Amino acid sequence: MNGLFRTKSLDALQADPTVRTGLRRTLGLWQLTAIGIGGIIGVGIFVLTGQAAATKAGPAVAISFVIAGIASAAAALCYAEFAGMIPVAGSAYTYGYAVLGELVAWIIGWDLLLEYTVVVAVVAIGLGGYVNALLDAFDLQVPAWMQGAPGTGEGRVVNLFAVLICLFVAWLLARGIKESARLNNVMVVIKLAVVVLIITVGAFYVNPDNLTPFAPFGISGIFAGAGLVFFAVYGYDTLTTAAEEAVNPQRDLPRAVLLSLLVSMTAYIGMSLVLTGMAPYQTLNVDAPVAKVFVDVGLPVMSQIISVAAIAGITSVLLAFALAGARIWFAMSRDGLLPIWFARVHPTHRTPYRPTWIIGVVTAVVAGFTPIAVVAELANIGTLVAFIIVCTSVLVLRYRRPDARRGFRAPALVAVAPLGVVSSVVLIAVLDPLTWVRFLIWMLLGLVVYFAYGRRHSRVAVEPGVPAAPEEA
């Protein structure tokens, strides 16, 4: 047990947030908020909303979003407090290391590697569906073999568009954070504008009869829907992984977390009500449900606009989560828990390009050959476990170190943190048991890696506090 619960020094982590780490500080409040919105609004609003309504909750999917949003908001407040305290790359991994110790940090870091990688794959699959819908809208046909993974349709072999977008995002992120942030800003503006357009135009085509019965699957269906759409209401945690690339992290990170979640939840609730009001919920279990309902009401031009916006919006999600995955990997490698080779930054672009490219290739393979529903629930359980650890850690630290400098203090933390834990546990409980099995297999593999390598190479054991910056490639 010796060393399993050694912690990083909180004072050392707070000592100098501008210390040179090899990464480049270029992100302000708007760029950070855009990363958060980019991480939240995407495949959930354009794909999973329809699928959750059709198979889980019916029109009551709006309530599913509220339930998932409460769990996410409780965790968001905890993330905001931590982000204002510890302006260091790694997000929940670093927070857990500072409070609960190395073994817990490893568990959450390994968990986040799975979560962020799987999210990229899920989002890429959803993007492939909208690319196909856009091509169909312009009467452009592509061979069936390249339209989706095996088992998702007759003659399908690979989701080729999903593969290509994963590789493009890896290339872009490896080129530099500033370039990636600029493109992300543009895509976020586009998708927010189109979401407002969808809600405004769609409201005129809502048929109240489609909203009855409102909860055809009952209370259990609403909670099952929340377990599925929870995938759509997180993503703000991705911006906290970029702490060492923020200009003023202790001020801007908490604000960006809360702003991004507020904007996104408003969009989700509005979209879900309009979507289920425009079409019977039973018809929404398709690859591109939002585009489909506008075609069905005789607005094919809107369908084309939506497909373009969905592609832009979903690409911004890919950027946010691929960036986050690479930064978690970078932080764990810099701490010695994974080989330092992965923490070498590019001498010109100042990015952790090695994990960036590995994540790009892995997600390309998963997205190309796996159905979306299987991957989405696996991503959800990883995030919920992260939320449990973050909510627990921030409450422990509030009592253990009440004197610590905090850029933001979560209100009513004694109620908010337990709410985040309990709601996350409830949402885990409604997931498919097979998802638990897959997750446990991944965690057992992680423990093998930790005890075989990470525990013996941990830099905190030799050099407590913040490890020195890695060398360049």
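[next item in queue]
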Amino acid sequence: MPSTDHSTISSTISSTSSRSALRLHQRPIHERIDALLALSRQHAEHFCSPDAWLARQRYLAQHPTSLLVMKCMDGRIHLPHATRTPLGIITPFRNLGGIFDLGWPYLGELLTDSVLAAAQQGRGTLMCITYHYSAGQQQRGCAGFGCDTAAARAHAYGIAEQAGRLFGKDHQQVYPLVCGFETDSDALVIHGKAGAVLDIRDWVGQPAEALAIRLAAVCPDMPDDIRRDLLPLLEGNLAHVTSLYGTARALEIEHREWVICIGRGFDFLHLPNTALIIGPYGPDLAEPIGTAADIIAANMLHGRIPDDGFMLLASTPYQHSGVDRARAELKSQFLSRFAAQVIGQRHPELASKMRPHTAVVHWPTRRLDLLQSNN
């Protein structure tokens, strides 16, 4: 197997925002909010463009496996970008720290519905359960686990074990795959059977064709069709990591978040250190909302962001007009009120600087529609 000095790669490559995104954190709150909403519109426009639509249709015809990804809310983990996969192919589940429990009723229902829909169409499901870390500096790891990579990885294995209990331990219909994401290089790290690992950084400068042989050795129990459809992600990731090798990229290790998102439908938000995203999955939403408010308050206190305000964005996706949209509106309004109440109780002074925005997302087009806002 090829040998690569990972520390050398990490010293020259790191995942971060652009200089324009860096300046965004320093602008007045109304300008930051306008820029974020403009980003959501640009995302929807691109998603609905003829080129993007055709790319999705062609990709799904060639690679029909349903791709579900459990991941942290960290904006550096942008898998469509890092794997060069068309937007809309990967279905993300995002939460603070990538912390999930498949016993949570709503989360379990969403996952089961996705798996059943794929099975009824004759498609298998690949469930990528991710954790992230920095090879160059521990402090750039996952804040949700106190930058403890071992703990984050152990949690991912725990979710994989739950998936086996839920969907079958032979993994022939649903294959749970523990997958690391090294944020300095944007490299995927596949964890297979008996401790076997496929680290994309090992393949920089090597032929992509050899990945298929290595993947089969690392995950010998993976069904052939699922392995076939995972391979393009790995090949895309190899091309992405190779393109970044030797490129100077500034490091972003400091919290500068100024948005608290609660709900779902935040696919457009992949700016590092910008938003804290809380999925509506667990039985206790108050604790992660309070933790997010603690982070925003500390960011203001230490001058990492201006103290003129922060954005609270509640969002719920819907598929159809009528009852489906009406239910999404009620859910977003509830989430917004609930989050505002928690923040008001925990940080009364911070609550006075809150700019709440309530929205729904038309999922087929990824269009975000604001229901109300206070600027």
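[queue empty]
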